[in-house]
Amino acid sequence: MGLFSNSASENVYERAKKHLAQKDGCVHIAMFTSFSKLANQNFDCDEKYTQEIDYILQQMQKDGYMIIDVKFNSISGQGLTGNRTGFNTLVTYK
To answer: What is the average pLDDT score of the chain?
Structure first.
């Protein structure tokens, strides 16, 4: 799919699975944090973030969860050098 490995996303999802709610018909949320790629450009697809979140959403669906909504917030000036964008992604699911 691109330049980035899914291994980090796999690790994040494996850790997150234990915090996902039982499939009980109720609406639940999960919050994921991530950073933009190092060479972030003004107008481009951020492959790193896209692949990380897409992997999480795919795995949740494969595990039988229904994704209701995905919202994100971006925060500039993040990371050790202050040159990256941080993302908080809120996944609403059943």
So the answer is: 87
